[in-house]
Olfactory receptor (Alligator sinensis), 308 residues
Amino acid sequence: MKPAHNVSEFVLLGLSQSQETEKICFVLFSVFCTVIVVGNLLIIITVKRSQSLISPMYFFLSYLSFVDICYSTVIAPKMIADFLAERKTISFSCCMTQLFFCHFLGGTEVFLLTVMAYDRYIAICKPLHYMNMMTGHVCGWMVLGSWTGSFLHAIIQTLLTTQLPFCGPNEIDHYLCDVHPLLKLACTDTYIVGLVVANTRMLSLTCFVVLVTSYIVILVYLRKCSTEGRLKALSTCTSHITVVVLYFGPCIFMYLRPSTTFSEDKTVSVFYTVFTPMLNPLIYTLRNEEVKNAMRKMWIQKVSFDNK
């Protein structure tokens, strides 16, 4: 039997209560959203068109950029529109939809970052077996597994949250619909659902442990390599490690703790919902010579074609 919801919509309190601050945020986050879409789209186009970026690492990178675009699209437009709204409301169904896609796309990003770490481990520690182990077929299954695993994770969280009765109040002290603030509004014991939120904790923790372990193994292996080989290997890993720290740091703060809300939650959430998707293209292009060279060639080809 479905629970009777007295709440048909939720009121989002947003990032700030100051109108002046919200006007500034409207401009800033509009720029951020544009950079996210343009930057990640540029990565996707470069990888798809370049003949030199055909390794599994760039195959995964293009999917990571696609997820970043989708992730920011689910969250940023509503947040930006609310900066100019006097009353920030979201319907119950839209709130649950946003909750699902936040965890679906966020989980996919977690899995993809873990897969990319495994790819670097095989490439550096088992170079002779790399082409046989990381075939196009295997990479495709890894991406499919990332989508499937995150879908199951998100649908379980969303269905259980949807089944909670919400009788009022309906104010969410956040700029998006997430599990922690919604559990506070449910007019019933949320212990069981709180345990399921541990699903998010275990997902983040397990992937983080795998990531840390893989890079520890890589660093130990590199001690046996020559200085040139060590520097080349580290250059390919530095970008990925930077993205992992930027993404997992806030996620660990948000989900690897009891089901409570802190005043810092909104600020921390901005890091993995807006800043990380925006910084990913910059990190992977500025620190990666192969990507920069591919972009230069693509630009030269475009200019040559336009001048004909």
Observations:
- The radius of gyration is 21 Å.
